Amino acid sequence: MGGRSGVPRTRGMAGGTVRAGGPARLAGVDMARGAALLAMMATHILPTVAQASGTGAFSATWVGTVLSGRAAALFAVLAGVSLTLGRVPAERNRLGLALRAAVIAAVGLTLGLARVGVAVILVDYAVLFWCALAVLSLRRQTLGLLAAVWILLAPVAAYLVRPALLAAVPPLRLGHNPSWPDLADPVRLLADLAVTGYYPALQWFAYLLVGLWIGRADLARTATQVWLVLGGAAAAALAKACAWAFLGPLGGLNALLATPQAKVWPLRAMLEANLTGVDQTGTWWWLTSAAPHSGTPLDLLHTAGTSAAAIGAFLLVARIGPLARTGLLAPLAGAGAMTLTLYTAHVAALALPLADWAHLTREALLAVHIVAALGVGLFVRANGWRGPLEAVAHGATRLGVARSTGAPGGRARRGGAPARR
Q1: Which of 20, 34, 144, 408 is deepest in the core (most CB within 10 A)?
Q2: Separation CA 353–CA 355 (nearest Å)
Q3: Are 81 and 209 in contact (CB under 8 A)?
């Protein structure tokens, strides 16, 4: 992968630095991060499944249909992209990456203590970074092949292992925000993070592999950006088409509706919106859906495709001269440059009964969170600052550089260029 020398750098997600292959490239990546953050806010505040008044029937909401699953997947794919964009490449600063992930995990474990109905992604996000240490040196073609195999086989492995974990004594539970007390039982914590949690690393590592594969491409080229949009959209459409065939003409939906789980959950609506919490055991038909948060091969393929398309689209939009010159992209890009801080503040705010105190509807509460994120992100970006948590993560990364190179102050011996403060 070229372009690592003689190219100006600037700050990226969680305090890292990115090779800025032109302002359009930087703005596009940050815009994609910002969009992922705002979309996750929407899925946290607005329902994905709603019960119709009068009939009592459940159906997917627009949030469940449009954003559920896709928002978090984009967040995870961008994690892989970020590992390819550092001033000191991640494969040459493994300690820095591990320490940065530790900072993110510590924040996530703290948020796990909050009493809030949100599936906090940060600890799982950190686990994905740690898992990435094993594949950072792989060639782009190898990463692509590994991602394809992982998308196909990891869900099968999870399906085979999950029943044993759910039957353990005491049993693991589906969906759990890890927190500091969970460290007292590391085996159960690892099993939860890998298989039974909200974002099981066994399947979600596929997103990081896809992100690494995308990030190793020449993202500054228009052709690459167009292919990301077209290829991603094609993969997403193919996954949904296959799921429709399996669940419709081939009878998969009827098989799932005949399971014991369908007597507990509004399964038809959840297959369209969010399968979180449903015990996908007892029949192989579970692996044929593309339901959001199902972790099936078709779900991973679909959401990896929509993530690739979104990244390509934002990179293309960032090339539009009038938008770049007028600064209309700045609020979204600013929020995307400090997602760790803004995500943490968002979850912490949800733990407070602010909506009840102010008598806000869910829609109004979402608007407050979005406006606050865009406003704070724009202010911090305009002043050339980092978010406070990004600064801590950046410090951890610099410490890794210093330890890895043996140079004081994080100055890398290769090339002699100091990391930007």
Answers
A1: 34
A2: 6
A3: no
Mean pLDDT (whole number) for 283-287: 97
Q: Are 345 and 368 in contact (CB under 8 A)?
A: no
Distances, alpha carbon 116 to alpha carbons 110, 275, 410, in Å:
12, 19, 38
Q: Against a cut of 0.70, is the pTM above it?
A: yes
pLDDT digits (tens, 9 = 90+) for 35-80: 999 999 999 999 999 988 767 789 999 999 999 999 999 999 999 9
CA dist 109 and 195 (Å) reads 18
8: pLDDT strictly greater than 70? no
Orientation of helix 362-382 relative to helix 339-350, angle to 10°: 150
Residue 387 structure tokens = 């978010």
Those residues whose C-beta lies under 8 Å from the C-beta of residue 407, and which sit 6 or more positions away, are 401, 413
Residue indicated by tokens 């993070």: 193
d(CA 10, CA 152): 36
Contact 49, 266 (CB under 8 A): yes
